Amino acid sequence: MNYFISAIGTDSGKTLASAIITKALGADYWKPVQAGDPTDSNSIRQWLGTDQIIHPEAVYLKTPASPHYAAELENVELKIDQIQAPNTKNDLIIEGAGGLMVPLNHTEFMIDLIPHFNAELILICNVYLGSINHTLLSLEAIKQRGYPFKGIIFNGPDIKSTKEVILKHCPAPCLLHIAEEEKIDTAVITKYAEQLKNNWNELD
Questions:
Q1: Is 23 known to be catalytic?
Q2: At what angle do helices 160-168 and 131-145 cross, to 10 degrees?
Q3: Which one is catalytic: 23, 31, 150, 163?
Q4: What is the mean pLDDT of residues 189-196?
């Protein structure tokens, strides 16, 4: 199964969540489009070591910017039909760049990669002032397109009222809540991977 990891915005904790999901499922990891250093693949590699296979990026852009802009600056043609997922018999965790509506070019967006890879979406919601609005807008986009939606992962402060409002309008369950951690290391990844694995098994 392919799982596409996206978020309600940039710097939402997608890479951390991707590491946890990869660990929990014993899956492969892949970042189709990387813009800027350090790469998310390297972060995953540092956290997981050699436990899982980390596939090389399909597109690497040096400029730390929206993929469509970075591609323009570097004279790279970035089109979805040119991006193919790696061959694997394992589950594949696919990490997007930024939020769902980040443009890849002037007509295609990150959200369009979900059906291209025949993937199921997992949405990361980091909790901050304005996150309810951004999450509900993301959920509307998902609803309009009717894409498979596995669940939502919260990241940050555990604000009950915020989670209640979001989950009331979310057609998929909460898979996990990642608290604010002072340090992210292998032990933290393993801790949350065990929690996710239990939640995942209960849903299945």
A1: no
A2: 20
A3: 31
A4: 96
